[in-house]
Amino acid sequence: MKAYLGIDLGSVSTNFFVMGQDEEVLVNIYLRTQGNPIKAVRTGLARTQDELPPGVTIAGVGTTGSGRQLAGIIVGADTIKNEITAHGVAATSLVPTVRTVLEIGGQDSKIIILRDGIVTDFAMNTVCAAGTGSFLDRQAERLGLPIDQFGQLAVRSSNPVRIAGRCAVFAESDMIHKQQLGHPMEDITRGLCQALVRNYLNNVAKGKAIEPPILFQGGVAANAGMKVAFEEALGIEVLVPKYFAVMGALGAAQLAQRQVSNGAETRFRGFEVSNWDFHVSSRHCHGCSNCCEIVEIEAGEKSLACWGDRCGRWSEQNPAQIA
User: Fold this and answer.
1) How far is Cα 301 from Cα 278, in angstroms, rounded to an integer?
2) Do you find a cis peptide bond into 213, omega within 30 degrees of 0?
3) Of the spans 54-63, 148-157, 282-291, which averages the highest pLDDT?
4) pLDDT at residue 166, rounded to an integer
5) What is the pLDDT of residue 321?
6) Structural domain for 152, as ranges
7) Rounded to an integer, what is the distance from CA 318 to the centroid of its chain?
8) DSSP symbols for 16-34
9) pLDDT of 320 higher than 60
């Protein structure tokens, strides 16, 4: 049986998704990157191999996320696509009529506008931490709450407090102030969710035509308080898909299937990659005044790829495969 593997390598999480030829779900894995993307890819590959049903062969691999190039080089990807493309493809596969995708991940947030299944507009916020998963994790930890209980506590509030959400620093100090005044925990968490939604709509989604159906994707979609806050602010139902946390990997798997649908052989190096010893080094190229910082990844003593140059002097030498 042929199957297709999608990998979404992000700064906070690394996700793996394997689907069959008829898009049936075979493997769905969510891992914390924990600052070591190479280890996360190796760990995820090993787990994917363990969870695959017998007789399944990987016929194509796609990568996405902020570390898509690195993941693609390690595993031998057939297609490497940005997050906008991957999330858009995944959203339309689950809800063909989707017109808006709200995506909030660990370190960034984005909005994708689709019309007739095609991405027509998008925006990303990669500067401010307010509203991202890592910020919510930090606040939940400071409040002594497991992150999975944060949203459930927020939806129980009947009198949310007003919290400044334009900046992560101000939001945190405002939360501390509200705590010191004695406001109930559920009102503070609900107020924070509302503040972060305001921040998202006033910055990331500013000027965008938000129309239903609306999908809420990314790890933060697990927070019921954020979903309710979006619905209150927009006055429209917001849908959370079943695989909300791994939609990027799902889209990458679908893109891989398209890439190899013409019968081309996959470039996938195999699951034995999880046992390889990788080494990453960097150096400056002094071939011109740009002094580009070149990054090289090696497996054993063999170079897999170089990148970081502007002219292609090093990246054009990248071998397609290694023995």
Assistant:
1) 9
2) yes
3) 54-63
4) 67
5) 42
6) 96-238
7) 26
8) EEEEETT--EEEEEEEE-T
9) no
Domain match, 123 and 139 both: yes
* Gap between the Cα atoms of 152 and 147, Å rounded: 10
Do 26 and 131 reside in the same domain of the chain?
Answer: no
Pick from 249, 250, 221, 243: which is nearest to 65 by CA? 249
For residue 309, what are its two tokens? 């140059």
Closest CA to 98 of 254, 240, 234: 240
Most confident of 163-167, 245-249, 286-290: 245-249
Contact 73, 67 (CB under 8 A): no
Query: Would 137 be classed as within a structural domain?
Result: yes
Please give the average per-residue pLDDT across 70-99, as a whole number. 95
| Tokens standing for residue 168 | 């992560």
Q: Is residue 243 part of a domain?
A: no
d(CA 160, CA 184): 9
Least confident among 5-9, 29-33, 71-75, 144-148? 144-148
Residues 77 and 190 in one domain: no
Distance of CA 182 to the CA centre of its chain: 36
The three-state secondary structure class of 296 is strand
Number of domains in the chain: 3
